[in-house]
Specification:
- This protein folds into 3 domains: 257 residues, 3-Layer(aba) Sandwich (Rossmann fold), CATH 3.40.50.620; 162 residues, Ribosomal Protein L25, Chain P; 116 residues, Beta Barrel (Ribosomal Protein L25, Chain P).
- Helices cover 25% and strands 23% of the residues.
- A 7-stranded mixed β-sheet has the order 12-25-26-27-23-24-13, with helices on one face. The protein has a 7-stranded mixed β-sheet with strand order 21-18-19-20-14-17-22, with no helix packed on it.
- α8 links the parallel β8 and β9.
- It binds adenosine-5'-triphosphate and magnesium ion.
- The site of adenosine-5'-triphosphate has 14 residues, from α2 and β8.
């Protein structure tokens, strides 16, 4: 009998969890956490971590905590704490009543440091930051013991107490673990556990002037929360011995919430995306220096940017599933992310007509004042979506690029004397071109229509090469439409050219605003509605700039699916 459960994710972390469950490790519990530092908005890389942590827990009957890793007060803000909660929820995940802050544990984390000192496993060191680096040695050379390494326990306790009391200036002393200055792993060469830092914290205010380091606070927080599988990115692999050292060295059993088991750190490859920068420092710089309109600019790889652009949670989760979980870093083609939103919207978005660059068409033989409501299918890929009525009248708009006065060969759209089929309506013929006398620009077309050519009519089957989308001029809803290209011009914007940084790779044409677009009536202006504008791509209302008086739509993606093409070729 095949015993693989098809509902389980397929990745090496699931394999570890399955093995753990088989031998009854952690009392059969699976408890993960997502631990963002609230120093920026979440991005698509975080989405991968969120899907992984919450997804593994759900699949294995476990639970996931949201924990703000707020041990670094100078860079953290309440705005980020709030946006992170919004984004995780929007992605479809629920931490229930388990939202924590590393700062909730500051007192206990401090007490454990005192325990370490009492056990002779930590000492106060007066070397400067530079001296600590100098003493640390290199990959090929052992480090040197700090001259303060052998302070007595009493002296260490006294100094550490006074560090907390604020007796010493920032940076003058640190608390270090006493491990091994000759360890081949640099992280084990007496790493810093506490630093003096006079900086107001978003939750603890000025209660503390010493703050624990991530590598020390993280295993303690995991342990306090009974985390079983502590999943992080690859750059922490070399920190794992320190993670385990902390768990071994600390009397964590004494903490009241402790149950059977202890957390295990597991590292996976972080997501890198082509044409995208992912570091929060760089994303923050783009925001602060106004290269983009904000963290939620629709060109940003942030969750809030993708949401505003029109991405759906389902498409992002699908993307995170498809990229898988690896142990080696690589870069994912952004075309895959775009493919995922197309797959979703191809089935689920209503197809409507919108003219982005309008050209007026007057049907001279169509009665003035007459309006016909024609049937149009909402989505041929999804018949359940039914049909709607669209108005046809004497004056219409078509796309400027659907007409050419002097067309090249194989131009199958409208030309002087030529015919075109209007989608879900009639065949029209161009009789006369009206141009601006000065500029020669085409101002409007006078056409005739074939009254028998609509669906069911005698000439409906007539062979016409081109079909155009259109809207009735008097019924159309005006809107601004924003078209986007990648924010960066090169696949790897982080690869910095000499003498310039990643910003030199910014795409100066990443946004194009078309102000005079015409949408078919009935297009809803709520940000929950996604549309395919026929032949133009997928669109969604801009949740920030759009108003009932002045609609603004974003193009999520065009229809051209380069990922599907790559897959076919491969
Ligand atoms: P940055 O270095 O840009 O500030 P970070 O990794 O420090 O990012 P955190 O807020 O600490 O950001 O990340 C929270 C969690 O999300 C961590 O567990 C981290 O491993 C994970 N994460 C961050 N970036 C990525 C990524 N690109 N791919 C997968 N997981 C990521
Ligand atoms: Mg981090």
């Amino acid at each position: 009998m095949n015993t693989t459960d098809s509902a389980l994710p397929v990745n090496f972390i699931q394999n570890i969890i399955s093995d753990d469950l088989k031998i009854g490790k952690n009392g059969g519990r699976v408890h993960t956490r997502f631990p963002p530092e609230p120093n920026g908005y979440l991005h698509i890389g975080h989405a991968k971590s969120i899907c992984l942590n919450f997804g593994l827990a759900v699949a294995n009957g476990g639970i996931t905590n949201l924990r703000f890793d707020d041990t670094n007060p100078s860079k953290e803000e309440v705005e980020y704490v709030e946006s992170i909660q919004t984004d995780v929820k929007w992605l479809g995940f629920d931490w229930e009543d388990r939202m924590f802050y590393a700062s909730d544990y500051f007192e206990e984390i401090y007490e454990y440091a005192v325990e370490l000192i009492k056990a002779g496993k930590a000492y106060v060191c007066d070397l400067s930051a530079q001296e600590i680096r100098d003493y640390r040695g290199t990959l090929t050379e052992a480090g040197k013991d700090s001259p303060y390494r052998n302070r007595s326990i009493e002296e260490n306790l006294d100094l550490f107490t006074r560090m907390r009391a604020g007796e010493f200036a920032d940076g003058t002393r640190v608390l270090r673990a006493k491990i091994d200055m000759a360890s081949p792993n640099l992280n084990m060469r007496d790493p810093v556990l506490y630093r003096i830092l006079r900086s107001s914290h978003h939750r603890t205010g000025d209660a503390w002037c010493i703050y624990p380091m991530y590598d020390y606070a993280h295993p303690i927080s995991d342990s306090f929360e009974d985390i079983t599988h502590s999943i992080c990115t690859l750059e922490f692999a070399d920190h794992r011995p320190l993670y385990d050292w902390c768990l071994d060295a600390l009397p964590l059993e004494s903490y009241p919430r402790k149950v059977a088991g202890r957390p295990q750190q597991i590292e996976f490859a972080r997501l890198n995306l082509s044409y995208t920068v992912m570091s929060k420092r760089k994303l923050r710089e783009l925001v602060e220096k106004d290269y983009v309109s904000g963290w939620d600019d629709p060109r940003m790889p942030t969750i809030s940017g993708l949401r505003r652009r029109g991405y759906t949670p389902a498409a992002i989760r699908d993307f995170c599933d498809r990229i898988g979980v690896a142990k080696r870093n690589s870069t994912v083609d952004i075309a895959l992310l775009e493919h995922c939103i197309r797959e979703d919207l191809n089935i689920n978005a209503a197809r409507v007509m919108a003219v982005l660059r309008p050209l007026k068409v007057i049907i001279d033989n169509y009665p003035e004042g007459q309006v016909e409501w024609l049937d149009a299918e909402n989505n041929p890929e999804n018949p359940e979506m039914g049909s709607r009525k669209i108005p046809f009248s004497r004056e219409l708009f078509i796309e400027q690029e659907d007409f050419m006065e002097n067309p090249p060969k194989k131009f199958f759209r409208l030309t002087p004397g030529g015919e075109i089929r209007l989608k879900s309506a009639y065949i029209i013929k161009c009789e006369k071109v009206i141009k601006d006398e000065q500029s020669g620009e085409v101002m409007e077309l006078h056409c005739s229509y074939d009254p028998d050519s609509k669906s069911g009519g005698a000439t409906a089957g007539r062979k016409i090469k081109g079909t155009s989308h259109w809207v009735s001029a008097s019924h159309a809803i005006p809107a601004e439409v924003r078209l986007y290209e990648q924010l960066f011009l090169v696949e790897n914007p982080d690869e910095e050219a000499e003498g310039s940084d990643y910003k030199a790779n910014l795409n100066p044409n990443s946004i194009e605003c078309l102000k005079n677009c015409m949408l078919e009536p009935g297009v809803a202006a709520d940000s929950a509605s996604h549309y395919q504008f026929l032949r133009q791509g997928y669109f969604c209302v801009d949740s920030v700039d759009s108003s009932p008086e002045a609609l603004v739509f974003n193009r999520i993606v065009s229809l051209r699916d380069s990922w599907a093409k790559i897959q076919k070729k491969g």
